[in-house]
Structure formats: C-alpha cells, structure tokens
Amino acid sequence: MKSPGDLAVIGGGIVGLATCYQMLRKNSRQKILLLEKEADIGRHQTGHNSGVIHSGIYYRPGSLKAMNCRQGYELLIDFAKRYGVPYEICGKVIVAADDQELPRLEELYRRGTLNGLKGLKRLIPEEIREHEPHVRGLAGIYVPQTGIINFGVLADKLRELVLTAGAEIRCGVKVKRVQAKDGRQLEIITSAGSFLTKQVVCCAGLQSDRLARHNHAELPVKIIPFRGEYFKLKPEKRTLIKSLVYPVPDPAFPFLGVHFTRMINGGVEAGPNAVLAWKREGYAKTDFSLKDTMESLFWPGFRKIAVRYWQAGAKEMYRSLSKRKFVEALRKLVPEIQAADLEPGGSGVRAQACTRDGRLLDDFYIVGNPPLIHVCNAPSPAATASLAIGKYISDRLMTRPGDS
To answer: Are 280 and 38 in contact (CB under 8 A)?
Structure first.
C-alpha cells in the first residue's frame, strides 16, 4: 500500500482531468493521483464526443448545467487560446419545423437570454436560409456563441499539464470501491492493490453509480446507457451545412435530437439518435452485457419511463435499424438530403442518470461532501463545462465542512 496522497481522482475522462488541473492550480504542491481503468485516458464519453462547444441556451436557468456551461464556456475558450488547442466559434441555427415547435423555440430563446447569452437572433424562414442556404423551417434562432473543438486534443493537453505539475496518472487500474480507513484517510481498493489518500473524487462516467453505491447504499439514481449513432456527410456533400444545425428538442427528454455538426477537422456529422445500449460501454449494435442489461431493465425508474414513452423508444430503435428513417429525420432540417449522401459514422454512449421514480435527470448530479465526492451525472454539456465542474469540485474540496 502506497503512502497517503492528498487527492485521488477516479476516472480519466475530461471531467476527471479538469478536476486535477483545477486542484493543482489552487495548490501546486498537492500530491495527486489519477486512476483510469482503461489503457489510456478519454476512451469513453470524452473520446466519442462530437466536439460541440455548447453555449448554454438549452438549460434551465439556475441549474448546475446552466451555470457550469456558461462559466465553462469562458474557461474553455481561454484555455484553448492559451495552450493552442484548435477551436472555432462558428455559430448554430436551431430550427422549428412545424407549428407545435414554435412555443418550445420561444422557450429556448427565453432560457438563453436568462442564461446570459448575447446576440441571440430570432429568424424567419428567409433569414434561416441566409445562415444555412439548404435548411428549411418555420422559424429559428441563431446562436452566435456555439463552437467546435476536439475534446480528445483538449484532454491530452490537460494530461500534459497535470503531469508537468507533478500529478501521477495510472492507467489500466480498475477501482473496486472506496472506503474509510482509520477515520482520517480513504482507502481505494483496486485491481492493482490499495491506495491511501486524504480525499477522493469519483468521475467514473458510465460506472459512476456503481462506485457511489458502495458509499451511498440508497443512491436514488441508476446510470442507464444510451447509445447515439452517427452518419457522416460524404465529402462532396459537406457544403450542405455551413456550421451547426439543430432541431427544437423534445422537453420530455434530455437529448437534443438528430442534428448536423461541422467538425473541427472539416467533416460533418449527422445524428445522433438515442437508443438503449445493451452494454454500458458498448458502441456497436451487437455489444451486449447481461449484467448491464438486467440492471437497466430491472431499475424501477427505467420501467416507468419505458411504459410512459414506449412509442418514442420504438421510433428511436426503428431509426437505429433503418437508414431510411434516419434520413427522414434529417430531411426535416435539410429536405434535399438523400440516403446516398451519407456514410457510416461513429457512435457514443451517454451515461444518463435515471431516478427511481422514472425521470431522466436533466442536470448534473454530484453526491457527497469532502473528503469523498461522486460525480453521478455529467452528460452533455459536461465536456464544455469540464473546467467549471473541476473548479466547482476543487472549491468544495478546498473548503471542507466546518472550515471558515
């Protein structure tokens, strides 16, 4: 067993790395250890991210998502400029395709204004075409702050900085549980032995609830994995999209709908859908884990959601199996899109917390107080917000209960 450190961070995704970075900025003399079960950092949500720098227009004012997205946006842009991480602020158009979406579009404008976005512009059909000549809709919003970046490159830069500052990163180490030791230390039980430390932050993404449940037996949420599948526009069709084009999202779900995203490398992604993944870290349709599937299906909250929204779920599953149905969703935004314009893209798995009473949590969810904190729900826009989430956590760690 190693001698005690000051802090251990579990999870080598962008939130875990950002937490290490922010802690070291506060106190560069801290002894910090980051543990990651995969062979390298950023193998899951960070490495499968579409690369959107979110503006904060979608999130309920006053929520952790809204506050951390707006602060994280500014911190992210400053970081990218300082360390030469390529990015572009290209703007985004959100489009209402029918009359039923118009009130929801107006609600997005209201939220964006309350969240401090500047330069939002309501668009009539002709103005939509000025921004995106191939896009059609009844009305829209132009969001100038939205941008694109490669979050994998950003994570690599964070790793470089925390290593240079003296942190240790150990990959290939699977954490089994965290437990109190002698009342003053925490013991991390891993596949590579035990580690002692004064404080622990768990940023375990798709495994976050499993680690948290060791310390919070009555944890009221379960991670339900949703796979998002993408197509790519063929190179000769990339001119159909100038920046980013999104539909008006369904407020019943914390997903943004099938959309078009220009990538920092010049490509254009189309997607994703949102289907139940049969494995927490399963990126292919055929990936399956009996344990993961049974945990999802037997969680009371998921069963309630399945009963309530079975039609929406069936449509997503059908769209996953049918390219024609996927194209129909895309044509609501760009009518001239054809199946021949698309080629297979990548996929990602979203770690989505579901409550026992049947809600998909639409905010970040952080459990516990120093010396042990669990980040139990940090889906999109967590990558955009990562530096702010890291700062939020580091502030809590540096001001333990009872401190003045």
So the answer is: no
